[in-house]
């Protein structure tokens, strides 16, 4: 499920699935992310990746068929450099990714905003990332005050971002 088949507004998803919020199965990320890209609403299965101030392996991942998935990129909340820019946003779009949530920064904001993909990030920073470092794939990440697990479902729109262990509807 990508942005073209967004199930319902995030607020409606929360209302219709309030019991899942109480059990912690549906988690609401803190409202710290800024919207980038042309798709304000996007959703899909999560692929997680953890890096710190580098994006080693990110291009290779985004070149794989996205199949409407959403990348959750945990950069540790660092704002010292960007992790995704216009080139990688376009690579992700061409490969069929629905979007990305970046616990860090983006750059090339005008290029990212011109791309038909959804991106959420903490801020922008013109500094490019390093190209080497430890990269962890398919691990639990703590993003926006919530644990996000590989394979979960993420839903984002102008009201916020939620994740759930299953696909949900409003």
TrEMBL record:
The keyword Lyase applies. Its EC number is 4.1.1.112, 4.1.3.17. Pfam families: RraA-like. GO terms for biological process: regulation of RNA metabolic process. InterPro entries: RraA (IPR010203), RraA/RraA-like (IPR005493), RraA/RraA-like_sf (IPR036704). It comes from the Eukaryota. Mg(2+) binds at residue 108. Coiled coil: none annotated. Keywords: Lyase, Magnesium, Metal-binding. Its cofactor is a divalent metal cation; Mg(2+). It is an enzyme of class 4 (lyase). Gene3D superfamilies: Ribonuclease E inhibitor RraA/RraA-like. It catalyses: 4-hydroxy-4-methyl-2-oxoglutarate = 2 pyruvate; oxaloacetate + H(+) = pyruvate + CO2. Substrate binds at residues 85-88, 107. One of its GO terms (molecular function) is oxaloacetate decarboxylase activity. Signal peptide: none annotated. Homotrimer. Belongs to the class II aldolase/RraA-like family. Catalyzes the aldol cleavage of 4-hydroxy-4-methyl-2-oxoglutarate (HMG) into 2 molecules of pyruvate. Also contains a secondary oxaloacetate (OAA) decarboxylase activity due to the common pyruvate enolate transition state formed following C-C bond cleavage in the retro-aldol and decarboxylation reactions. This is 4-hydroxy-4-methyl-2-oxoglutarate aldolase. It comes from Aegilops tauschii subsp. strangulata.
